[in-house]
């Protein structure tokens, strides 16, 4: 698999991790735990939520994939690609009913332009 594909995989895993963490933290069980007095057991219950745990697992897999990217590319070339996470997040957020303003869409377009320019260098 070429380095660009590994980078996209890593970014996609990070995006999936964000939505998994959001799902977990918004769930009734975690929300109920957040209303409890904070303790080590509260933290453990939150961390053991399947979506929160899954989000951390996805982040871990994304980090492992990112190591493959960093072994092949300079950080100054690789890291701007992380901005593509905004591009992947936007349509998913829309599908999930989140509010996406025109200024947010324009900001993502500017990020895309920056990633394109860095990629050509």
Automatic annotation (TrEMBL):
Membrane topology, record value: Multi-pass membrane protein
The residues forming a coiled coil are none
Where does the record say this protein resides? Answer: Cell membrane
Which ranges does the record mark as transmembrane? Answer: 51-71, 78-96, 102-119
Its predominant location is: membrane
Annotated keywords: Cell membrane, Membrane, Signal, Transmembrane, Transmembrane helix
**Organism domain of life:** Bacteria
Q: Which InterPro entries match?
A: EmrE-like, Small_drug/metabolite_transptr
| Stored SUPFAM superfamilies | Multidrug resistance efflux transporter EmrE
Signal peptide positions (record): 1-17
Q: What is this protein called?
A: Uncharacterized protein
Q: What is the source species?
A: Janthinobacterium kumbetense
């Amino acid at each position: 698999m070429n380095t660009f594909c590994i980078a996209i995989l890593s970014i996609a895993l990070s995006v999936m991790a964000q939505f998994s963490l959001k799902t977990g933290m918004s769930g009734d069980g975690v929300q109920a735990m957040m209303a409890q007095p904070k303790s080590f057991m509260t933290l453990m219950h939150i961390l053991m939520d399947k979506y929160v745990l899954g989000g951390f697992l996805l982040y871990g897999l994304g980090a492992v994939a990112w190591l493959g990217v960093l072994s092949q590319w300079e950080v100054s070339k690789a890291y701007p690609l992380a901005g593509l996470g905004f591009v992947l997040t936007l349509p998913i957020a829309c599908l999930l009913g989140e509010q996406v303003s025109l200024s947010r869409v324009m900001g993502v377009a500017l990020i895309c332009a920056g990633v394109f320019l860095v990629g050509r260098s």
